[in-house]
Amino acid sequence: MTGRLFAILCLAVMAASPAFANKVFVSNEKGNTVTVIDSDTWEVLEEFPAGNRPRGITISPDGALLYVCASDDDAVRVFDTETYEELYTLPSGPDPELFVIHPSGDRLYIANEDDNLVTVTDTHSHTVLAEVPVGVEPEGMAISPDAKWVVNTSETTNMAHFISTADYKIRHNVLVDQRPRYAQYSSDGSKLFVTSEIGGTVSVMEIDDEGAPTLVHKIGFQVPGVLPEWLQPVGARITKDGKWLFVALGPANRVAVVNAETYEVEKYILVGQRVWQLDFTPDEKYLVTTNGNSNDVTVIDVEAREAIKSVQVGQQPWGVVVQPDR
C-alpha cells in the first residue's frame, strides 16, 4: 500500500469515527458528591466526593478543570475532569452558591449567599482579587458575552446588579420580581433573562451597546392542574441562535419552552421532581435537567421538545454542567 493511499484510508476512518461523548457533571447537594454521566450512552460513569453541600458547578473553557461550589466548606473545589482527582481549592468567600467563569478561564465570579458579596477569584494565583458588596442573599450569576459585565441577582433585595469587570463597581441596578434565582444572557448580549422563583416570572431586559439594561417584559406561566404557587422559575438556558428559552419551574416538575422573540410559552415538558438547573450539550441536541426530589436528571430532546430519558444520580442533584468539546 502506498503512503498516499494509507493516508487517505486513515482520513476516511477518522471521518467515519463518532465524536467523543461529552461528560455531564451533576452536583448532589445532600449526597456531597458529583455524578459523571456519558452523554452518548447516558450511563453513569462515576460518582466522587465533592466536599460539603456542592451546588454551583462549572468547567474551565478548555474542559480540563471542574469547579464546584462546596457551600458548607466555604471554598471552591477543583477537580481533573478525566481522573476526578481533587487538585486544589480556591478561596471563595463564605457560602459560595453559584458562580460564572470568565471566557479566558482566569477568573471566577462567585455569589456568597451569607455575606452579601460577590467574590472575584484568580484561578491561576489562587487569590481573591475583589469583594463586591451587593444585595441580600446573592445567588444568580451571569457574564456578558463580551465579558465586560457580571450580573448578580440578590434574592431578598429582588434586584439584578450589573457589575463592571473593569473596576468591580456596580453601574446599574434593576428591580425584578420576588426572589430572583438565575440570570442568563443571550449569546449576542442583546438580552438578559432573570428568573424570579417566588414571583413566578422571568424578567426580560434589553441591553444597549454600552451594556445598560432596560426592563421590557415579564414572562408568566400557567399549567392546567398545577397550583400557581408551584410555578417557581429557577434555572434557565437560551439557545445560541437566541430563539428558544428553556426555564426550570421547580416543584411544578416542568420545563417551560419559551419563544425568546415573542416571549410566548409554547410548551411545558414534564420532567422529574423539583427541577432546578439545566445545561445543553455543546451541539444543543440535548438539554439535561437536575431534579432534586427524585434524585435523577432528565434528558430532553431539544428539537422534539420531549423528555426522552431519566438517569438516577446522587442525593438531591442541584447543578449540572456539560463538558465542552475538546
Structural class designation: mainly beta
Describe the biggest sheet? 4 strands, antiparallel
The count of DSSP E runs of length 2 or more, i.e. the number of strands, is 28
Outline the low-pLDDT stretches.
1-19
Judging from the principal axes of the Cα atoms, what is the shape? Answer: globular
Strand order of the largest sheet: 3-2-1-28
Q: How far is it from the N-terminal to the C-terminal residue, by CA?
A: 33 Å
SSE string:
HEEEEEEEEEEEEEEEEEEEEEEEEEEEE
Instruction: Estimate what percentage of residues fall within beta strands.
Output: over 45%
Task: Output the radius of gyration.
Answer: 20 Å
Helix share of residues? under 10%
**Count of helix runs:** 1
Rounded average pLDDT:
94
Give an overview of the whole structure.
This protein is mostly beta strands. Helices cover 4% and strands 52% of the residues. It has one helix and 28 strands. It has one helix spanning 3-16; strands at residues 23-28, 33-38, 44-49, 54-59, 65-70, 75-80, 86-91, 96-101, 107-112, 117-122, 127-133, 138-143, 149-154, 159-164, 170-175, 180-185, 191-196, 201-207, 213-219, 236-238, 244-248, 254-259, 265-270, 275-280, 286-291, 296-301, 306-312, 317-322. The strands form seven sheets. A four-stranded antiparallel sheet has the order 3-2-1-28, with no helix packed on it. Strands 4-5-6-7 form a four-stranded antiparallel sheet, with no helix packed on it. It has a four-stranded antiparallel sheet with strand order 8-9-10-11, with no helix packed on it. Strand 20 and strand 21 form a beta hairpin. The protein is globular, with a radius of gyration of 20 Å. The two termini are 33 Å apart.
